[in-house]
Amino acid sequence: MGNAGNAFDLVVVGLGAMGAAALYHARRQGLRVLGIDRHRPPHELGSTHAETRITRLAVGEGAPYLPFVRRSHELWRDLEARSGEQLLHQSGGLIVTGPGSRPGARWADFTSATARIAREAGIGFDLLDASTATARYPAIVGLDRHQVGFEPTGGIVMAERALSVQLTLAEADGAIVHTDETVDDVVPGGDHVDVVTDRDSYRSHHVVLSTGPWVRELADPSDGALTSVTRQVVYWFEVDDPDAFTIERFPFVMWIGASDAEYLGVFPIPPGGTSALKVLGEQFESTTDPETVDRTVSPSEIDAFYEHCVEPRIAGVNRRCVRATVCLYTNTPDDHFLIDSDPRSDHITVMSPCSGHGFKHSAALGEAVAERVATGTSTLDLDPFRRRRFAV
Ligand SMILES: Cc1cc2nc3c(=O)[nH]c(=O)nc-3n(C[C@H](O)[C@H](O)[C@H](O)COP(=O)(O)OP(=O)(O)OC[C@H]3O[C@@H](n4cnc5c(N)ncnc54)[C@H](O)[C@@H]3O)c2cc1C
Question: What is the pLDDT of residue 391?
Fold first, then answer.
């Protein structure tokens, strides 16, 4: 075991969206904290890059998420006030569900689910007919027979900027951050956990494992078995008129089709962002690993996505792809989060298998996990995300 300077109340392993938020809030709780990352966040190798993430208060994924996204919006504004950087842009957002969306399929009937949640929670969400939606946003075409809903409070969060702001402020508040250091093992003791890295070892009262798609390396094997990692691609296509797609004039769009291959996510251009339209698809069929995933995006992959998902739906977008990057989802079998004590020790919390929709909740999840470590309980209820729902 290392020297006394290597003793902490909390070591956060992995400083992506989840770990950065946990570190920031743990320090605000007064804990002696160390954050360790094998790379130098923000980086492009995990799940928290590509400039922006969609956020919406009416989260059709289910009522347990609502307090987290609401609180996260407050926390982004707090972080903006502390840092002077704008992180949350409430451009509004469209949820579009196409005909043929199969009952029971991922995202099935998502516009209706979102409308229901919005109604119950008193969040503004307007169902629009196709002609009204197209009149408002002429670039969006082919909406006939689709169900369309608009949330004015939705928008985008600057992903890497939010991560950096939290790490910078955490350090300014007294947290210690080690980058380019890999945690090789976490070894539970009676009332502590030893964290062994490729550089040193540390003793901590508690450890948060927020290693995203690397979850299987350090988590209990039973948690590893519950997660699957998939390769997703984000593209930026050239547009005729970038001004027509900025946050002042264009919403985010979540466009759900009849199958996963029909999914299209569209992101407005934020100030200082790549001057092109950011879009992404989804696939869950082929799983991968962050160390072996193919990070190249081939010209044929770009062409196929443009022709299949972009060209028929968004006008004024050209075939030329100016940028593309691979990003990783870490999903559980029911696509909901896994945040819980580790089966090996109550002194370890697993917090980052967040199934491709975690960013919008990350600030509040970090706060709740930090509170739980500091006090044994959290203001917002983390119970729905425990693994016991998978027990047979
Ligand atoms: C393409 C894409 C689009 C998305 N869109 C949205 C969206 O619009 N809205 C939304 O809410 N969510 C979205 N998500 C989901 C959201 O971005 C993720 O849930 C979130 O970013 C996950 O963050 P994380 O901290 O769990 O993982 P990561 O960001 O991957 O962080 C894990 C960190 O752990 C470090 N690490 C791993 N192993 C070790 C080790 N042994 N030692 C030290 N460090 C280690 C890694 O270097 C990494 O920095 C999207 C995800 C993707 C991929």
Answer: 82
Residues 6+ apart with CB under 8 A from 365: 18, 21, 22, 68, 337, 339, 351, 354, 358, 382
Q: Tell me the CATH number at 283.
A: 3.30.9.10
> Residue 330 in contact with residue 41, Cβ under 8 Å?
no
Same domain? 260 vs 168:
no
Query: What's the structural domain count of the chain?
Result: 2
Give CA–CA dist 306/16, Å, rounded. 29
Claim to verify: residue 19 and residue 126 sit in the same structural domain: no
Q: What is the pLDDT of residues 16-27, one digit of tens each?
A: 999 999 999 999
Measuring from each residue's beta carbon to the nearest atom of ligand 1, which residues come in under 6 Å? Answer: 13-19, 36-39, 41, 46-48, 50, 53-54, 182-183, 210-214, 217-218, 232, 234, 280, 327-329, 352, 354, 356-360
Residue ranges for the chain with pLDDT beneath 70: 1-4, 101-104, 392
Q: Residue 118's domain spans which residues?
A: 93-152+228-331
pLDDT at 283: 95
d(CA 264, CA 190): 48
**How many CB atoms are closer than 10 A to CB 39?**
16
* 77 part of a folded domain: no
Same domain assignment for residues 205 and 232: no
Ligand 1 atom at minimum distance from 39 CA: 47
Closest residue by Cα to atom 16, ligand 1, is 359
pTM attached to this predicted model: 0.98
In this prediction, residue 108 carries a pLDDT of 79
Instruction: List, in order, residues 6 or more apart from 322 with CB less than 8 Å away.
Output: 236, 237, 238, 274, 276
Ligand 1, atom 41: closest residue by C-alpha: 183
Using one digit for the tens of pLDDT, what is the confidence trace for 119-175? 999 999 999 999 999 999 999 999 999 999 999 999 999 999 999 999 999 999 999
The residue contributing the CA closest to ligand 1 atom 2 is 327
Same domain, residue pair 141 and 237: yes
